[in-house]
Predict the 3D structure of the following.
Amino acid sequence: MNNILYLVVPCYNEEECLVDSSVVLKEKLNQLINEKLIDEKSRILFVNDGSKDKTWEVIDKLHSEDKIFQGLCLSRNKGHQNACLAGLDYAKDYADMLITIDADLQDDPNTIKNMVQKYLDGNEVVYGVRSKRKKDSFFKRFTAESYYKLLQKMGVDIIYNHADYRLMSKRVVTELLKFPEVNLFLRGMVPQIGFKSDIVTYERLERTKGESKYPLKKMLALAWNGITSFSVKPLKLITSFGIFLTIVSILCFITFTILFLTKVLNYEFGSYIIMTIGLATGILLIAMGVLGEYVGKTLQEVKARPRYFISKVLNDEDK
Ligand code: UDP
Ligand code: MG
């Protein structure tokens, strides 16, 4: 049988929930092995994303107790997206299918079986889609759902309510690694690859232990990245806005000239000049800001720096 599954679990300061999560994940994996859905060489790979707590020590201990657990340690914190990719890149040499799943098990591990079944049905990508967001606060639900809609409006090919809980075949991961970009937005990149895909829905659970490692700042950065890495619509919107403004200005100029010439209005232009300068400066600054964002991105992509460096590996498997 050639159905080796690797669960890739990014971990940043997760010492509190790793032990519990490892028990659940191991149980799920063994269950699938017993049901002969996956190969017994299937493993759980924890990727330590430069944690400042004892996360790596916990992973090390888990590995020493049971070889089903493996560990990959990044030399510093590189963020969730890079940690996922590092794990996928490493594990693809051993696995036939790979699932990325958060360490706090908010993405229901019971869905793993459905994903595997869809893979066995011939799908190369299986997206985990959140069916309800009952456990999320109104603010989180509203902002997240509006964001998916905005992305779709911007022309980004994205699966609605899908984050980074997904199964990919070895082939898809190999293709994913051909993207040289450093500003990663995996949920935008994977649909670009194509291949037969399907979705499974699940209810997002509450974090088991610890707190979210995705503060508002990181979330906004990822959201902004999603737009600017995948859509040039903001640039086009500026151009459209510029054209609109030019036409309005010309119309105003003609109207006012006629009104002054026919003496319907007394000549009083100063205040309008000030308003126009203010408006024009504001618009120019916004335009420059957005342009700057793209220029900045181009610079980073041209540099094509390595995305991460692996410092340690725990694995006794042969390739
Ligand atoms: N994570 C990571 N690096 C980071 C931040 C988060 O690897 O810089 C991991 C984290 O350990 C977890 C997953 O990414 O496994 C999702 O993070 P979290 O649960 O804190 O995000 P939330 O569910 O609150 O959006
Ligand atoms: Mg979480």
Remarks:
- Strands lie at 5-11, 43-48, 69-74, 97-100, 125-130, 162-169, 197-202, 310-314.
- The chain has two domains: 5-213+307-314, 233-303.
- The pocket of magnesium ion (ligand 2) is lined by residues 102, 104, 106, 207, 212 (CB under 6 Å).
